[in-house]
Amino acid sequence: MLTAILSIMMFFMIDTLGRIKEIAGEGTMQVCLQYAAGIMVIFSVIFLFYTNSFLIKRRKKEIGVYNILGMGKFHIAKMMGIESLLIGGISILGGIGLGSLFNRLMYLLFLKILHRNASLNIAFSKPALVDTLVVFGAIFLLTYFYNIIQIRLSNPVELLHGGNAGEREPKTKWLMALFGVATLSAGYYLALTTKDPLAALGVFFVAAILVIIGTYALFTAGSIAFLKLLRRNKRYYYKANHFTAVSGMIYRMKQNAVGLANICILSTMVLVLISMTVSLYMGMNDILSVRFPSPAKVEILSTNEETEQQVRQIIKDEAEKAGVTETSEITYHGAVLMAESKGTSFTLRPASDFSVFGICGMTLIPVDEYNQMEHQNVSLNEDEALLYCTDRTYGASQITINGTTYQIQKELKTLKAEPKNKAGTYGTFYVILPKLEQIRQFSEATKELALKNGQEESAKAMTDVSYSIGFDLKGDKKSCKQALEAMQIKFGENANINFESRILSEKSFYSLYGSFFFIGIYLGMMFVIATVLIIYYKQISEGYDDKERFKIMQKVGMSKREVKKAIHSQVLSVFFLPLGVAILHVAVAFPVMTKLLAVLNLANETLFAECTAVSVVVFAVFYAIVYGVTAKEYYRIVN
């Protein structure tokens, strides 16, 4: 009932949160919360069925006794129906009651994470109530039918011995063990070798599925093979604590393995979720700095001198009205394009074509604009170019663009237009060319390709040369924001002008990344609770199973001290194996996770490593506390 109440409370709160008017009006946050509610439904089904399987196993003997004493299966089904109705009713009422009690606190916490002003006006959500009744009513109904089917298919003798089912020594399944090694190795290989952030999006899920399959296969078959190898080692096996631990784990390893694999997968999910979402939230300043190299930027798509003057005047006027000063201005003409890279050869493509392998950004700037921006005096021959890459070192002596080869006079280490970073789905190449006319020709060729491919909208949006103005405002934040908002309104009236600002985008970024952070912590907390309860159920169930076995051990000469030592050895090995494997999974997944974070504009690997390390340490300490409590309870039952 406690497990069910907890699951219902968590679902009701997240569903209610997604239906609050202020949140429902913002698509990003609402979608994130709806996905979280969907995950909670799937998780609750698995979690409550898992809990129910332990309870029905403990009750099989009791139900078998009722059957032998004269109760028919119809009467048992009726009895269990009334029990399910009472437990379901109390659990749903308790969960909704606690959810309503803590809803306001959860809402205030969510607003705090999003950097929003707090509001206490939260009405009771009737749609969330209906969702909760339907979802958990269905779950309790399904568990009831599952229990009835189990009892109906069993005879009284099987029910009497149901608590001891699954104790036959399993066979060593070498084929499954090898399959587990192969799938786990494949998952690890994908995680370690994926270099492209865009490819990491698809690879991560494939690698995760392979690792999950491999984990289950290795815990189920590989662990049995390993334990039997330990049993063959006579020096190790024929010691009181090793003998009981190894023999006990082999004796029921089939059912143990699934539980251990579940704990391992849940632990991995907790560590991945929390470390990634905390990193995103803690690295918000890094993310905004990478996404907006200039605090404010205006881009004129089809430029001319008159429009440029008008834009400059608007910036100057609105800054003066707000009492702030424009600083750090960076301006340049150029063409912002996409390209497909194959070594040192680049083929320009329409901006909407992201399906191509090796896609990258390419910004072409004439050398006189570069000199003006960087305060340099560089001259280039017709077949020469300067090159700057945002996410790597290019290293080659030449570059070919649409079949035209340029010799790299110098590879630049810095560029004011954009600092070095590894964030984003792809890198950007800045190519400094001798003449503006060459850039116009490349733009025109790309436009023609878009029309040829039937991409009229993409071709219409493309221009031969654009003009970019990057700048900052000096003054108090409120006045700067006021000036930028006024600029945004004026520039928004012209479809030919794009305007973006770091300050004005903070709200939307906090909405997205704050939602990720909240959901990561929320689901992480739920997974932690599930991990603890699964471990607890598992150890309590095994305590009852081991009780008679340890009595026999004491009768044949083992002291209580030796029994306790044997229990400690068994529980310790069973307990910390999933944690060790989970930490290994996270360590191997670290490279591909950094690529995923790069897609979300976080390139600070040091921050992510620190957040991951702290998450692992905190979780391991918590895990050790649970071990202490569980081992004590296990020993109390056995003793």
From TrEMBL:
Transmembrane segments: 36-55, 76-102, 122-146, 174-192, 198-227, 259-284, 512-537, 571-594, 606-629
Keyword annotations from UniProtKB, A to Z: Cell membrane, Membrane, Transmembrane, Transmembrane helix, Transport
Main location: membrane
Topology versus the membrane: Multi-pass membrane protein
Subcellular location: Cell membrane
Domain of life according to the entry: Bacteria
Family membership: Belongs to the ABC-4 integral membrane protein family.
Protein name: FtsX-like permease family protein
Lineage: Bacteria, Bacillati, Bacillota, Clostridia, Lachnospirales
